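Help! Submission page says 'invalid entity' but I think these are all valid:
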Amino acid sequence: MFLKSADGIGILSNSHVLAWCGRARRGDPIFAPHPDDSSTARKIGKLHRFTSLINDDEVALDAAFALLEKEIAYSGNVVPDGLPDAGKAIKAGKPLPVEAIGLRVAKIGRTSQSTSGVIGAFNVGPKLIYRGLGEVKLTGMLEVQWDSPRKAFSEGGDSGSVVYRPDTMEAVGLVVGGGRRIVDGVEQGVTIVCPLTLAMAEWSLSPL
Amino acid sequence: MSSKDVVIAAERARGLLQDRSEVESVGVSRDKDGDLFVRVDVGPGTDKAGIHRLLAQIGAPVVVRIVSGRLTAHWS
């Protein structure tokens, strides 16, 4: 998601997307598209702020903010053509209250494109497996329930996607991870979402 | 019980369960009638009744679920 800081305009994504879970350094170059996705990858910015997931404590924020290079053109947070909500801008929203459980949300991701699901739990603290890092205990996350285990809300490569409310076009958070699991004998799919407002408050980020 | 009370109860539950490695996750969820409850996900083989007994003191409805399968960060 594009946001503004005192130092300039940048993109907010996950620490495990932009900052190697905290092993990167401030000022490291950020490339887009990912070199695995395209041979046209080029430097678009530099790492500015990030959280570290490498510690023994609970992690409340898997996020990183990269400042865009001055010459990089960007379209802001407008939903691309050909997708639901095309042409509408996603706005930075307020913190969701617990009453938001049951609310339908949507996301646009690199792998699974446009999908929707329902907020199933609030302030959850799941354990997530990070490649090369092992198990990390998260806290204060939102959980989005998939419509069915065969209809994923998110998949590998969707990290950092903005989850938003289609009814208000307000951003809710960033996709962190998820998967399928068996709950009391029934298969379910869930996506873990890091609340957006926490990162915005932590780093004094504001809407464009 | 207000929604704020349930959120506070979930925090108390999290504190009471912090040293229990079989606990996967603690959060707040909602049932089909719209009522909020504290949701505790535990690994297979966990004594659900024991968790309920431990959390009886938090004064909020508690649902304990047996969960298997790992969640992963969505790397490409």
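Support: the input was valid. A stray whitespace character was the problem, and the output above is from the cleaned input. Chain B has a mean pLDDT of 94.
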